[in-house]
Write a structure and sequence with these properties.
With 440 residues, the chain is of the alpha/beta class. The chain has two domains: 112 residues, Enolase-like, domain 1 (2-Layer Sandwich); 253 residues, TIM Barrel, CATH 3.20.20. 41% of the residues lie in helices and 14% in strands. The longest helix has 22 residues. 42% of the residues are buried.
C-alpha cells in the first residue's frame, strides 16, 4: 500500500473511532468542564436520591454551591483549609494535612469540587464513599489529606444545619473535658528539663512529649545513652506523676536498636514510646512489642480503616495515633477507634496541624470512649494565635473545654490570612555520615 493510501485509511479509521466514542458518550473535552459534563451525563438519575424534596427532618434542602481552599503560611510549613459553601448561606470548614507538596493537595480538592457541587453536604458517609470509591485506587498522602479536609467541612455543615455541635451527631459526649499534652523543646538534657517544667507550670499539663537524640551521624551507643539522659532529666524535673511520651519519630529501622532504647528509658516510666520503628512493617512492630515492657504507640503515618485493621489486629500497640487531617476524616477515625476498642487499645490522635484541626479532634475526643489524650500546642503567638477568631485555649489544669456551638464551634479569621503568605515547603532531608539519606 502506498503511503498516502495508508494515511488516508488511518485517518478514516480514526474518524470512525471518534464517531463511535461520541455515540457512547466518550471523547468529551479533557479539561475540568469536559470531565464534569461527562460525569453528569453518566450519573444523572443515579446515586443517592433526596427524600422529601431534600429536607432532612425540619431542616430545608441544601446543596453545595462551591468549595474554596486557603493555603496559609504558618512559619516553616503551611496549613491547608477547606471551605464549603451552600445555597442555604451556611458554610463548613475543614483542614487537610500539610503533606509537603501542598499545592498538590489543593489541586485534588479542586478536582473533588467538580464531583461534589450540587450534592447535599449532610450525607457525609455517601460523599466520602463517592470520593473514595471513584478514586478507585487507595489514596496516599495527598488524596487522603484532601478527602479528610473535605469530610471535616461536611460535618461542620451537618452540625450547623441541625443547630448542634458535631459531637452531638457522633453519639454525644462521653466526657466533660479533653486531656492534652504538648511537646517540649531544648537540645540538651538541661534545656529539655527546663522546657518541660515551664510547660507544666504555665498550663498545668498532666502529660508531655519529648523527642530522642538519634541523628544519623550519631553512633548506636551514643544515641541510646544521650536519649536516656534526656528522658532522665525531664523525669527529674517534672516529678513522678507527669506522663512522658517519648517520640522516636521513626529514626530507627532496626528492631533491636528500639529494644535497647526501650530498656534504657524504662526506669523513667514513660507513658509510651512513639513510632519506635518505621511504620510499614507490622510484623516488625509485633516483634518489637514482644521484647519490651513499656507501652508502644504508632499510627500517624498510616491511612484509613483498612491499613489500621492490620496494624490493630497485630496486637503490637497499646495506643493508636491516627491523624484526623490525614486518615480520612472524622467518621473514618471513629471506625479506627472502634476497631482499637475491640482490641483493648486507646486512641491518642496525632495533631500537629493548626487550631482548626484541634477543634475537629476535640469533637472526636468528646464522643469516643477509648480516647486517651490529644496532642496540642497552645495558641499563644504567631499564626496559631490569629488563624481562628477564638482558638481553643488549654485551661490551667491541662484540659480543653468542649465547644457547645453548632458545628465545630470555631471560625477562620480570614482577615488575618493576608499576613500569612504560604511558602513552598517540603520536609527536610537527613543524611548519614556517609552521605546517604535516611527516613525521619
Amino acid at each position: 500500500m502506498k503511503r498516502r493510501h495508508f494515511l488516508a485509511a488511518g485517518g478514516w479509521m480514526a474518524a470512525a473511532r471518534m464517531s463511535t466514542a461520541q455515540q457512547n458518550g466518550e471523547g468529551q473535552p479533557s479539561g475540568p468542564r469536559g470531565r464534569t459534563r461527562a460525569r453528569e451525563a453518566s450519573t444523572e438519575g443515579k446515586g443517592l436520591q433526596p427524600l422529601d424534596g431534600g429536607k432532612i427532618g425540619n431542616a430545608p434542602a441544601m446543596k453545595i454551591t462551591d468549595i474554596k481552599t486557603f493555603l496559609i503560611g504558618a512559619g516553616g510549613r503551611n496549613w491547608v483549609y477547606v471551605k464549603i459553601l451552600t445555597d442555604q448561606g451556611l458554610h463548613g470548614l475543614g483542614e487537610a494535612y500539610s503533606a509537603g507538596p501542598d499545592e498538590a493537595t489543593i489541586k485534588v480538592i479542586e478536582d473533588f469540587k467538580t464531583w461534589l457541587v450540587g450534592q447535599d453536604p449532610r450525607n457525609v458517609q455517601y460523599l466520602f464513599d463517592l470520593m473514595y470509591n471513584t478514586t478507585r485506587f487507595p489514596g496516599g498522602l495527598v488524596v487522603s489529606a484532601a478527602i479528610s479536609g473535605i469530610e471535616h467541612a461536611l460535618w461542620d455543615l451537618a452540625g450547623k444545619s441541625a443547630g448542634v455541635p458535631v459531637w452531638a451527631l457522633l453519639g454525644g459526649r462521653t466526657r466533660n473535658k479533653i486531656r492534652t499534652y504538648q511537646s517540649i523543646g531544648g537540645n540538651t538534657p538541661e534545656e529539655a528539663a527546663a522546657s518541660a517544667k515551664q510547660l507544666v507550670e504555665t498550663f498545668g499539663y498532666t502529660a508531655l512529649k519529648m523527642s530522642i537524640m538519634a541523628p544519623g551521624t550519631m553512633s548506636f551507643n551514643q544515641s541510646i545513652r544521650e536519649s536516656a539522659a534526656r528522658v532522665a532529666a525531664v523525669r527529674q524535673a517534672v516529678g513522678p506523676d507527669i506522663d512522658i511520651g517519648v517520640d522516636v519519630h521513626t529514626k530507627f529501622v532496626e528492631v533491636q536498636r528500639a529494644v535497647r532504647l526501650a530498656r534504657a528509658i524504662e526506669p523513667y516510666d514513660p507513658m509510651w514510646m512513639e513510632e519506635p520503628i518505621r511504620p510499614e512493617n507490622f510484623d516488625a512492630m509485633k516483634k518489637l512489642s514482644e521484647q519490651v515492657r513499656i507501652p508502644l504507640a504508632s499510627g500517624e503515618s498510616n491511612y484509613g480503616k483498612y491499613e489500621f485493621k492490620e496494624l490493630i489486629e497485630s496486637q503490637a500497640l497499646d495506643y493508636v495515633q491516627p491523624d484526623i487531617c490525614l486518615c480520612g476524616g472524622v467518621l473514618e477515625m471513629k471506625k479506627i477507634a472502634a476497631m482499637a476498642e475491640a482490641q483493648y487499645m486507646l486512641v491518642a490522635p496525632h495533631n500537629p496541624m493548626s487550631p482548626l484541626g484541634t477543634a475537629v479532634n476535640v469533637h472526636f475526643a468528646a464522643s469516643t470512649p477509648n480516647f486517651h489524650i490529644l496532642e496540642y500546642a497552645a495558641p499563644v503567638s504567631g499564626a496559631r494565635k490569629d488563624v481562628l477568631k477564638e482558638p481553643l485555649m488549654v485551661k490551667k489544669d491541662g484540659y480543653l473545654e468542649i465547644p457547645n456551638k453548632p458545628g465545630w464551634g470555631v471560625e477562620l479569621n480570614e482577615e488575618a490570612f493576608q499576613h500569612m503568605p504560604p511558602v513552598r515547603w517540603k520536609r527536610g532531608t537527613n543524611f548519614r555520615s556517609d552521605g546517604s539519606p535516611y527516613f525521619q
